[in-house]
Here is the input.
Amino acid sequence: MKVIFGTVVLLVSAVSRLCGQPVSPGLKNDICLPGTLYMLEGVQHDIFVEPLIKRWRPYDAVVRFSGSASYSRRLMRVASLRRPRDGDIVRLDLVDLNDFHSIKWVSAHIATGKPGVGDDTVTFSIIGDSFTDGGFFRSALLQKGYVPKIKMIGLRGVRGFPGAFDEGRSGWTLGKYFQVSTERDSPYNGFWQPAGKCRYWGATAFWKLAFDIRNHPQRLWPAPERYNATRFEGALRRFDAETGYLSAPVENDLMYDNVLGHYVLYDGREWNEAAYKDFDWAFNYGKYLSMWGLEPPQILAVFLGLNDFRNASDPAVIDFAGWNERMEKVIASYLQAVPGGKFVVMIPSSACGSMDNQRGDFTILQNACMWELRKNIIGHFDNRMKEHIYLVDAAIAIDDVNGMRYMHDTLYTKPYEAYEGAESYRVQYGNPHPYPNYPSLGLSLAAFIQRERGR
Here is the structure.
């Protein structure tokens, strides 16, 4: 056996040398976990292995669950806690299957929140990408009653829940929230504002599009327009449907006129030409709240990163410095506007689906890139509660197999053209969105809100 194994290694090494990429013996599997896991009392929480393990060499290592936590099941891919207890410890051991030695172990303590408890209103807001735009939080925060009297703050109405709002934008990165929106089909970004008294209200063509979609929902709108210009119905009352301009502008209001092709600044009597370079721009959470008359949220969560890094070419050389710096600016801006607030960095998905998927995405590489972001977030933002910064690990609730949608189109699922049997390939679609799994993703967020409300 040793001779055979050695021969295989030599063959792999020889092929690698021919390809110009020698196999590095230093590549190892790894795991990471934040110091605290938030869970709802009396509600089952699942911890999946795929999101928390770095699989450079698949199948060479497994994760074993232990600690003081009382598990209702401990399987190869998942461990579950049906009755999580505050203060219990979840321990994970990464075990090498070659010699069964523990390569590494990590642990987290459980912090619980009581579901359905709360007499006072709790204000909450979330900034995110398509996960937020798709309402991953609806089940846990709004449907099941886990978080009573929650008031969700934002400009985009939550589908199916009048009076609840979020700040999700499909396809957006953290960097997009540090840019001005001027295009017709680019959703208004209220956080990127000029310094001083000026207030940026968006592009005229965008607000006209939002009116058109609202007034003619039966039309077959292109996907970018439908995703980006809907759910702003509450904001539309400030604008004119025909021109897209503010209906009642005041001095120092700033917009972008798409017909003229330049910015316009209101001087109290008329709109005058302006330019982007005339202003100093920055992420300004306080101005966003004041100009839209929004109540300061006691808790602000940011759920971003998937579009920033999922398609990076090499997970080993990703530079997270700029992303971290921007997140720090968001944190500082929020805490300056809401000094007693609590800022939540949500750990995004590092389980992007299977290799058998409609788009042909290289999901294993995507998982590796996103795991590096996961490690970066934990290393940079964990254990900063004294600064009012918290981590919520929504990603560990993602079932990479059963949490995804599967196709029935035989173009993708039929083994071959003349095949007449009953077997078919399980081909995922909609990756990296675990739509069926969304209700589970919101549980940890609900637990955090319930634990921290009123504190």
Observations:
- The two ends are 62 Å apart (CA to CA).
- The longest strand covers residues 102-113.
- The CA atoms of residues 251 and 268 lie 4 Å apart.
